[in-house]
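Researcher: We plan to redesign the surface later, but first we want a full-length starting point. Tokens attached.
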């Protein structure tokens, strides 16, 4: 049973890495980061359930709480960036602080 969950976690992690590397839209990049975090959470919970130890599940809940606060921060950042540049393409935001 653990093996199936770990294979699923590896597949989700690989999809997240490919999305992070290949896409230029910052919303897709953000969703790929969330997919990476969820893959790690899945593996932590699967290992924790297999070992009958709740410490990894507690760590997973902490990661979910951090991801929720990250979501609020990133969504507000996306709104500000879209109002300023009228695009969410990551290539536009390569020069921090420049007056283009």
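Model: Full-length starting sequence:
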């Amino acid at each position: 049973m653990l093996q199936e969950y770990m294979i699923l976690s590896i597949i989700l992690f690989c999809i997240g890495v490919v999305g992070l590397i290949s896409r230029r839209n910052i919303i897709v990049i953000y969703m790929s980061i969330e997919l990476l975090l969820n893959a790690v959470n899945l593996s932590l919970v699967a290992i924790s359930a297999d070992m009958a130890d709740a410490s990894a599940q507690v760590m997973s809940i902490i990661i979910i709480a951090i991801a929720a606060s990250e979501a609020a921060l990133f969504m507000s950042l996306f709104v500000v960036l879209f109002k300023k540049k009228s695009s969410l393409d990551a290539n536009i935001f390569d020069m921090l602080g420049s007056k283009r």
